[in-house]
Amino acid sequence: MSDTQRILAITACPTGIAHTFMAAENLGQAAQRLGHEIKVETHGSIGVENALTAEDIDRAAAVVVAADKQVDLTRFAGKRVVTAPVADGIRRPEELIREALAATPRAEAPRQEARDDARPGVGTTVYKALMNGVSHMIPFVVAGGLLLAVSLSLGGTPTPEGLVIPEDSFWYVISQVGALAFTLMVPVLSGYIAYAIADRPGLAPGMIGGFIANTGALYGSDSGAGFIGAIVTGFLAGYVALAIKKIPVHRYIAPIWPIIVIPVLTTLVVALLFVYVLGAPIAGAFAALTAFLAGLEGGSVILLGAVLGAMIAFDMGGPVNKTAFLFGGGLIAAGNAAPMGMVAAAIAVPPLGMGLATLLRRRYFTVQERESGIAALFMGFFGITEGAIPFAAARPLQVIPANMLGGTVAGAVAAVLAVEDNVMHGGPIVAVLGAVENVAGFFAAIVVGLVVTALTALFLLGLSARRNGGEGAAADHGESTGTEGDRIGAGEREPVAVGAAGGSTAAAAASPAPAAPPAPAPSGPAAGARSEERSTGSVLDYLSEDTVLLDVDGARRDDVVRRLVELGAATGQVRDVDAVVAAALAREGQGTTGVGQGIAIPHAKSAEVAAPLVAFARSTEGVQWESMDGEPVHLVFLIAVPQEQAGDEHLRILATLSRALTRTEFRNSLLEARSRSEVIRVLEDRLG
Fold first, then answer.
1. Are 223 and 286 in contact, with CB atoms under 8 Å apart?
2. What gap in Å lies between CA 539 and CA 542, rounded to an integer?
């Protein structure tokens, strides 16, 4: 099209903002070249910037969405919309704009579906949906688990039926609140898996399906299907709702289709399938497991302990777990407390083991998972196995086998050491309260089991990371507090105008993000000169000739990161080199910071950073960085900030560098600089 058109765009990436802002800048430049106006709404860890208004949408000729996370597109009903991964916004922005202008207007609220050639694979879709469910479930697990743990520890009394809180006690009320939070955990997991797949029409069917999965009485089971059942109903509801959404309907029916027809039909399909098709096998399996355990009684105690431990650790509150728990508890009244001793030891292993794993290899876990690890340690002490569910739901192939192996070992050791538990509860708390015979053996079984779980989980997570080409195992939803499936809209900031033709938006295209107040100056020798020259809080406040490294040819990615961090240590901006390097490499494990075009922007948040640091390295040969475009990296900017400043400041630095580095002439000037001082002059000309 030759006439000037008004284009809207949304860019988003799940783990940082470098890709987000590079895509935004490239789309802005492409619109200028094509003679169009453009406004880009950016969705990054810093929040939503340059938000599109209703007036913007009314005036728009087309919309480009370059995003690797879920974005609500219902506001673009009737508009020409094209969707693609954020990498396409960086690599082929002009094509996306042309495709958007040529697209067919959508008569109904558009769904976030990529074109056939850009649609994510089934594995990516499943992973994003699972992460969305897990991230929304975690607060319920933590809140419910901690409330139950506190109420049991302060108000519980050991009885043959377990730790009992008197109903007229204040702590009984607290325990009931915790139990309600746990009750919601399974439906929330199911609901938000469905939501990530089918958007809002999938939410209610997913949550209702989760309640059904957790209510065994509906399908003749003594126990609900737990979080595994929730995963099944979540995906079932999501894909059923998605299929119904794709049915063409008359325009008079379209308004009620997503709010009445899809939720009702999907709920009926999921409910009937689970109750009448899936429920019977679950109930049958429950009965078969009970009979199997009864057959083991009187045989090898080691085998019985191993089987009970594995079952306890398998689904953490689900039907398999409940079968083993009820079998052990039922024998207490018959005068045999040994099976319950095996169960009680295994109960604590999954949460304690995964909590220990988050402490031993923090880089393998996201920030949210590390916080869940602390809560899991607390819950494990009080015998709440569900503390490990967030880890198992997120990465079942690595965590569930580790849990089962640790549980198997704990149960077998407890059997060998003749541990007995006289109450129907588990975890170290029952020993503290005097309900366990052979306390030393009980703790030995738990310790051995949790160590086995932690080490096995770390081995499997590391193996998975190496197979996928990453240094760490953290999921790529991890650095921010949300995940890939999260709906974005967490507040707006000062607009970030992105290049447009002939308007006020165009004039601001090259301007950096709003400046944050400058951080405390470093104490090293580079601090004084920089603080005297600038007080605006620009990128150059944190970078000097002392943190510039030229000609690092022949080095590997990890070596480049370490050398740059060592420069920061020499200037006093970094206290502990190893800690900061580990944080930077953990970020690489979540997703490469090689953003293409020969650029990498590794970044780290750590308490061992004394003051914000920007360090630069150049390689003429190129460093293999697993970049988005598969090409070697020639320009590396390392950003490191103190943990307490890990919000807007490092994101603002990232945004500023990302925008600037999209300019070919800027990159060429850095590549051609003959000295460290010349590098600084180039940066001053562009960023100062």
1. yes
2. 6
Which residues lie closer than 8 Å to 383 by C-beta, 6 or more apart?
A: 344, 347, 348, 425, 426, 427, 428, 429, 430
Question: The pTM is what?
Answer: 0.48
| Strand ranges in 123-246 using DSSP code E only, listed in sequence order | 157-159, 162-164
Candidates 213, 190, 212; CA nearest to 203 is 190
Mean pLDDT in consecutive groups of 10 residues from the start of the chain, 688 residues? 80 66 84 90 71 88 85 83 85 89 70 43 70 78 76 74 78 87 86 87 91 81 73 90 85 77 91 84 70 69 89 80 76 77 92 93 78 86 84 86 94 92 80 84 94 94 68 39 33 33 32 36 38 48 87 85 92 90 85 82 87 90 82 90 64 70 84 90 78
H helix intervals, 2-121? 18-34, 54-59, 86-91, 93-102
Residue 615 pairs with which residues in a beta bridge? Answer: 638
Residue type, 241: A
Neighbouring C-beta atoms of residue 439, cutoff 10 Å: 15
Ramachandran quadrant class, 139 (left: phi over 0; alpha: psi -120 to 50; beta: rest): alpha
Distance (Å, whole) CA 30 – CA 461: 41
Provide the β-strand partners of residue 64: 9, 82
Give DSSP secondary structure letters for 255-319: TTIIIIIHHHHHHHHHHHHIIIIIHHHHHHHHHHHHHHHHHHTTS-HHHHHHHHHHHHHHHSSSH
Residue 36 bears catalytic tag: no
Q: Is 43 a catalytic residue?
A: no
Among 13, 425, 477, 650, the active-site one is 13
Q: What DSSP character marks residue 492?
A: B
Q: Which two tokens stand for residue 358?
A: 């988050």
State the catalytic residue, choosing from 36, 136, 425, 603. Answer: 603
Nearest of 157, 155, 162, 156 to residue 333 by alpha carbon: 162
